[in-house]
Each structure stands twice: as C-alpha cells, then as structure tokens.
Design a protein that fits this description.
mainly alpha; 7 helices; elongated
C-alpha cells in the first residue's frame, strides 16, 4: 500500500533559512580567510624588515594577537556546516534511519548547550574591554574588536546548530525525508 506524498515537515522553510545562513557563513569565512592571508604577508614583511633592514615591524605581535580570533572563530560555523570539524562518527556512522538522527540530535544538543553556555562569557569579555577601554600593551590598540569576534562567531554557530536541531527533529519524525540543513560527512577515502 502506497503512503502517498510525505509531508514537508517544514523542509521548505528550513531549506530557505539554511541557504540564508550559508550566505552569512561564507561571508564570515571569506573575512577569516582574507585576514589569515593578510597576517601571512605581515609575517613575511616582519621577517624581511628584521633580517634585511634590521628594523622589525612595529606592532606586528599585537596585530597577530588581535587577529587570531578572526580566522579561527569566524570560520567555525562554515566548517561545522561542511562537516569539516572533528566528528566522532564511530557510533553515528554505524547507525541508520531514525537511530542515527537521534544520535546526531543528542550530539548537536550537547554542542548547542556548550555554545549557549559560552556566549554570555564572551559577551562579558567584549563589553568589559569596550567599556574600560582595554588596549594592547605595546601599540595601545583597542582590544574590543577582537573580543567582539567570538561573540559573532559563536552567535552564527548557535543559529547553525539551532537549525540543525530542527532538521534532526524533522528527520526523526520522518527518517525517509530529504536531509536538509545537516552536515553530511564525506567518505573518508574519497575525501583523501
């Protein structure tokens, strides 16, 4: 007996939100990539100026310290969406259907809880640096922009995981539905 067409269970809305969030994630990843590219050239300039002209680049260390969060935390949601993060697939890789989606839901719920627990702390660090006028020791550059980056990166990641939780609930309700807004890890051998 044919069951007929499956209900969408919010699949179209989830797909639209996922596509919108992917635009944000790509934009933050591009910013992170551009920053790490610039940092690489600052490092080259530092080496050349120090070795050839015996004149180190002023503020180079402060600049590197200020930009580290940008190329690590702004790209985290993009990496998470592409399943490029470190995943423990030993259990979920062996499961199929509803059992797999339940295991993925539980893991994502734990990740969401961790990010939500971290967000108030990073927001506090940003607000503290902004209001007291915190600055670097050598160059006296304000530190609040670099402390805002974790807030943005974690907020985007929290939205990504929230969409993922919705997607897993949808897949738990209907394991045969098209997976939307969930990271699909590639085959290890094919990726290599």
């Amino acid at each position: 007996m044919s069951r007929g067409p499956r209900p969408a269970l919010g699949g179209a809305a989830l797909d639209r939100l996922d596509r919108w969030l992917q635009v944000v994630e790509v934009a933050t990843a591009v910013v992170g990539g551009a920053v790490i590219f610039a940092v690489m050239w600052v490092g080259v300039a530092e080496i050349v100026l120090r070795k050839v002209f015996n004149s180190p680049l002023y503020g180079q260390l402060d600049l590197i310290e200020q930009t580290m969060a940008t190329y690590t935390l702004l790209t985290i949601s993009y990496c998470y969406r592409k399943a490029g993060h470190i995943r423990v697939d030993i259990l979920s890789g062996k499961l199929a259907g509803r059992a797999r989606w339940i295991a993925e839901f539980v893991a994502s719920l734990a990740a969401f809880g961790l990010i939500v627990a971290l967000l108030p702390g990073v927001l506090h660090f940003f607000e503290n640096a902004y209001y007291i006028g915190d600055s670097t020791i050598n160059t006296q550059w304000p530190t609040w922009p670099s402390k805002l980056v974790p807030v943005v990166g974690f907020a985007v990641l929290a939205v990504r995981i929230a969409l993922e939780l919705w997607a897993y609930v949808r897949l738990i309700a209907d394991p045969q539905a098209e997976p939307v807004a969930v990271p699909i890890a590639g085959h290890v051998i094919e990726d290599a």
